[in-house]
Each structure stands twice: as C-alpha cells, then as structure tokens.
C-alpha cells in the first residue's frame, strides 16, 4: 500500500481547499452534526485498483473521527460491485470528502488499468512499457505510482533524473553550428557520472551518429517499424533503445516486436479515462 507522505497530504489539502470542503453549504444546512453512518466505495467497472490509501487519507483529513479501511490492496483486479474501502462515522464528513476522494481514486485506478492493457498487449516480449512527464501538475508522484501498480515502469520523475537531449535542444545547438555527435559528446562530458545520456533521433543516420558519440540510450521518435528494426540491429545491444511517438494499443505490439527495449506512452497519464467508482452511503 502506498505510504501517505507529507507531500501527498499537502496535495490532498490543496484538493480539499479547491473544493472548499469546509464550506459545504448543502451538507451544513441539511445534515445534523451528530448523524452517523457508513459508506462503501464500490467498483462499477472492471479495472486495476490504485489509490485506496489516498482515498482513505482524504476522509481522515476532512474528519479525523472517521474510521476508514481499505478492503483491497492496490493492484487488485476489480469487477463491478467489488468493495474497495469502507468509511464509518459522521455523515457530514463522509459527504464533504466524497468527491475529492473519488477524484484521486478514479484517476489513479484509470491510469493503472490503462497501463495494464499495454503491458498485456506486449506480454511475452522483452520490452518495458514506460510513462512520460505528461502528467497533471502536482499529481506526478501519484500518476507514476499508478503506472507501476499497472505493471509499467517509470521514465524520469523530473528534469533532474537524467539527461534527455530532445529535438529542441538539438535544434538550438545546431543553429550554433554543432553536429549531433558534438552535442552528445558535450552532454557526456558535462553530465554528472551518475546520469545516463539519452538522445532523441529521427533517422537511422542520426541514431548511428549518436551511438558512435557514446549515447547511452536512443529515443526513436516517430520512426517507422522498419527504421526501428534497422536501428535495433545496428545498435546490437551497445545502447538501450526507446520507441516513442503516437504509439497506441493497436500498434504497441508491432513496435515491441522490432526489438526495442522500452516503449514510452504519454497516453498512460495525459489523457487517461477515470475508472468508474462510486460511494454508497447508509445511515445508522
């Protein structure tokens, strides 16, 4: 289960403040302060669970007297009707926290579910599905955790996690007269010894130049399947290869069959559909 860190609590607090959970006029005028009840968080669609502890933490943050229990572990395969968590205590607190808790849980479970689809699509092949930094601002840690729950792997968490020389870096330095090989060598010379240098390439010729300059990883951007196969054969294990650009569930297996080591998919986090999850309330 995901540890609830200070950073996660801060994110929960910002979400509750955004929703003005402490100023819920509907609940304040209708629900007696002493009314007790229980609620169940239920799956309404099949998927992979992620974020149960975060949802429980939301309710505890809204009303510390609420008793919460996660009934399933993250990574559980959900089917409609499955009970994910239970909440007991003041009904007003349950109602004030409901939407924020479900927002976290539905998004994280949606990411885990979509990631699992990609992982299943390449089953049996020696390749890893990885995410990108295309996340909702403030939610990156949770988004990337959900990718791991779904069986995927994380690319850089942030800009400090590695050196990735992308097309705009290359364009800026080529305008100054530098070749791709010179750009790669500069990155290698200036990089801390603990960081890998990855270079985005758009052709087999660029890949050859970056490889000979010493790049650790080649990012094959929007290449055709044939070009990917050509680059993988040329690299022959001397560097890692990562395919990226417009890859979806219909094309991911064909990309994996080219022999690349990694496939990065921005859609895991940037446009994922929330998993359908609801809260059912019963009053004592």
- The overall pLDDT, averaged over residues, is 97
CATH superfamily (homologous) name of the largest domain: Aldolase class I
Sequence of secondary-structure elements: HHEEHEEEHEHEHHEHEHEHEHE
Looking at the structure, the CATH topology of the largest domain is TIM Barrel
**Uncertain regions spanning at least 5 consecutive residues:** none
The biggest sheet, with number of strands, parallel, antiparallel or mixed sense and barrel status, is: 6 strands, parallel
Distance between the termini: 30 Å
- Quaternary organisation: single chain
Question: In percent, how much strand structure appears in the residues?
Answer: 15-25%
Number of domains: 2
Determine the number of helices (DSSP H or I, runs of at least 4 residues): 11
Name the structural class.
alpha/beta
| Rg (CA only) | 23 Å
CATH class of the largest domain: Alpha Beta
Which strand order spans the largest sheet, edge to edge or round the barrel?
6-11-10-9-8-7
Helix share, percent? 40-55%
Outline type: elongated
User: How many strand units?
Assistant: 12
| Gross CATH architecture of the largest domain | Alpha-Beta Barrel
Short description:
The protein is of the alpha/beta class.
Describe what you observe in this structure.
The structure is a single chain. It contains eleven helices and twelve strands. With 284 residues, the chain is α/β, with parallel strands linked by helices. It has two domains: 124 residues, Quinolinate phosphoribosyl transferase, N-terminal domain (Aldehyde Oxidoreductase, domain 3), CATH 3.90.1170; 150 residues, Aldolase class I (TIM Barrel, Alpha-Beta Barrel). α3 packs antiparallel against α4 and α8 runs parallel beside α9. The longest helix has 31 residues. The mean pLDDT is 97.
